Amino acid sequence: MIKKAIILTAVLLGYQGYSQSKLDGYIETGLKNNEVIKQHNFDINKSMYALKEARSLFYPTVSLNGSYTVAEGGRTIDIPIGDLMNPVYSTLNQMTNSNAFPALENQSVLINPDNFYDAKIHTTMPLLNFEIIYNERIKNQQTSLQKIELEIYKRELVKEIKIAYYKYLQSIEGIKIYQDALALVKENQRVNQSLFKNDKINRTAVLRSDNEVIRIQANLETAKQVSNNAKSYFNFLLNEKLDSNIETDNNDTLPIDAITDNTQNREELLKLTQVKELNETVDKLTQAHWFPTLSGFADFGFQDFDFEVNKDSRYYFAGLGLQWNIFSGNKNKYKLKQVEEDSKKISSQTDNVRQQLLLQFQVSQNNLKSALEQFYANKNQKESSKKYNDDITKLYKEGQAIYIELLDAQNQWVNAQLNTNIALYNSWIAYAELERANATFTLKN
User: Fold this and answer.
1) Least confident span in 12-16, 247-251, 285-289, 425-429
2) Which of 82, 169, 192, 295 would be 106's cystine partner, CB 3.0–4.6 Å?
3) 3-class SS at 77?
4) Which SUPFAM superfamilies match (predicted)?
5) CB 64 within 8 A of CB 180
């Protein structure tokens, strides 16, 4: 009882681990090969590029634009140059007694220019645009959110790999127990057949021993199939061939690593915190629609008729553009109301998840305590059933016990071994669940 109390206390206050180098290697392989993790990494890379795209909006945009037009007909601009200048020219001719100033005709110019080209370098740049600023922040927060989601999946995968590993160890140990039990009942079968031939016992004991051999053989076959299934599932988690060989560590110790409540650092809460910050940025983005946007532009190029290029063809054109939304039918107001409701929802979810995580930790902790208690109870039963089986076996060989007593003692011994094996690895499974509930496992980047 003292030893048991020390062990149970160590679950919360002490540390005594054992080397799990092979399991650690399998965890590393599983994290490396898992297809879902690869897909998460693709999404993160995509988000990083989206973030770079958002940041690129702060830089100027430069483009080369060109156009050439041919026109005939359509609207015109009438210029009465003849009506304006001909009286003046006539007076000048009379004064100079010459025809130095010929008469001019009124002009009609097409609005659409004919045989006209325009080639320019067009540059634009945002000078004041809060939408771009908050959009860049949103992309950055979305990237962080996806990284947190990846951490959550990794922790869940580590837990599943550990549980699958322990179940496989549990299954192969079960096979060993049944193999030893089969050798034991076959020896009983041989002894009973010999005693029956010598008229020491009746045929009932022989038939019962034959049935025991068949029963243990069937249980052994079932245990092998369970082990094969456990092996396949473990390899599935590692993304390896389902029949790949699994190397195991010798493990007959108990999980008594110290784990105290650390649920406040769970990634699930960090995710909700990130979601809350993201929602706050969306709120600022929505409010930014009330602010003006200012941008600048500049053109430098050539334009002329008949593809002429000279100093008069060159031009530049620059300016500022201002846009300020005055009224949009209360659209932004209702958007802000939606963001406010999302904020209330996130706060409610955070409180609920915090309680769920704490409950998960406490339940996992209690399950580990219960598993350890069960292991020690089964271990004591195993030790007593071993002594009882040895005593009955000796008495049976001396003819002082009947076969039913021997069979009962052997069944107790086999069942005690199986129960102890199950309890041992159930303790490790409970520990893996507690480790997950507390986010204790150290993930490598």
Assistant:
1) 12-16
2) 82
3) strand
4) Outer membrane efflux proteins (OEP)
5) no
Better pLDDT: 327 or 126: 126
Q: How far apart are CA 169 and CA 164, in angstroms?
A: 9
Give the chain's mean pLDDT: 87
C-alpha span between 232 and 237 (Å, rounded): 9
Per-domain residue ranges for the chain? Answer: 2-61+128-293+328-438
Contacts of 71 (CB under 8 A, 6+ apart): 110, 112, 113, 114, 116
Contact 367, 437 (CB under 8 A): no
**If you search the block for the tokens 């009983």, which residue do you land on?**
188
Instruction: Return the CATH number of the domain spanning residue range 2-61+128-293+328-438.
Output: 1.20.1600.10
CA distances from 369 to 14, 32, 194, 260, 418 (A): 14, 33, 49, 14, 20
Q: Which two tokens stand for residue 101?
A: 């100033």
Rounded Cα distance, 110 and 77, in Å: 6
Mean pLDDT of 231-242: 94
Tokens 């599935």: give the residue: 236
- Helix (H) or strand (E) segment spanning residue 359: helix 331-397
How long is the chain? 445
Q: State percent of the chain over pLDDT 90.
A: 54
Q: Extract the tokens encoding 171.
A: 């299954």
Longest dimension (CA), the chain: 167
Under the phi-then-psi rule, with left for phi > 0, alpha for psi from -120 to 50, and beta for the rest, what region is 298?
Answer: beta
Separation in Å, CA 349 to CA 15, 283, 342, 343, 437:
35, 19, 10, 10, 18
Contact assessment for residue 261 and residue 361, using Cβ atoms and an 8 Å cutoff: yes
Tokens 């309680």 -> residue: 355
Task: Please state, in angstroms and as integers, the Cα–Cα distance from residue 173 to each residue in 57, 180, 224, 323, following that order.
Answer: 63, 11, 10, 75
Q: CB pairs under 8 A, 24+ apart, for 209-218?
A: 209/185, 209/403, 212/185, 212/188, 212/407, 213/182, 213/185, 213/186, 213/189, 216/178, 216/181, 216/182, 216/185, 217/182
